[in-house]
Design brief:
This protein is mainly α and 139 residues long. It is built from eight helices and four strands; from the N terminus they run ααββββαααααα. The chain has a two-stranded antiparallel sheet with strand order 1-4. A hairpin with a 2-residue loop joins β2 and β3. α1 runs antiparallel to α8 and α4 packs across α6. The N and C termini lie far apart (32 Å).
């Protein structure tokens, strides 16, 4: 995962595609999936709802998830990643890095992305994306 995050790959259309999920992630009644469970030493993986799974794939399709050293970035931004502190002030690049960190991090910590969704952090990430999108012509 070498390289750096390329904000130039993020398009207004891609932002709009992710923003379609904002009401879902801000809903108090939405269900995002079933967490991993362990029964008799057998683990079952996280199961995302269909809509949560579509969002997951949209993050890749819109190029928000990009290869960069997200693990090292996480170490420098633990309060942001694990508590969501400071989302409201992130730049588009930082927001993309955070989204990549959550999506990619779920591969190594099953249930992480579901917890980000359940905690309201994903709704806050998309709310910040909406603010940034409003500043871009063509919206």
């Amino acid at each position: 995962m070498d390289g750096d995050y390329d904000v130039g790959l993020l398009t207004p259309a891609g932002m709009d595609a992710l923003l379609e999920f904002l009401p879902y992630f801000q809903s108090k009644r939405a269900r995002f999936g079933k967490p991993p469970t362990v029964v008799d030493m057998a683990a079952s993986p996280t199961i995302l709802t269909e809509k949560s799974n579509r969002f997951y794939h949209a993050c890749y399709e819109t190029r928000f998830v990009q290869p960069f050293d997200w693990s090292a970035w996480t170490s420098l931004h633990e309060r942001l990643v694990f508590r969501g502190e400071g989302i409201e002030a992130l730049s588009l690049e930082e927001l993309g890095r955070l989204l990549t960190t959550h999506v990619r991090g779920d591969r190594f910590n099953d249930g992480h992305l579901l917890e980000v969704m359940r905690s309201g952090q994903m709704g806050r990430i998309l709310a910040r994306l909406r603010q940034l999108r409003a500043e871009i012509p063509g919206g």
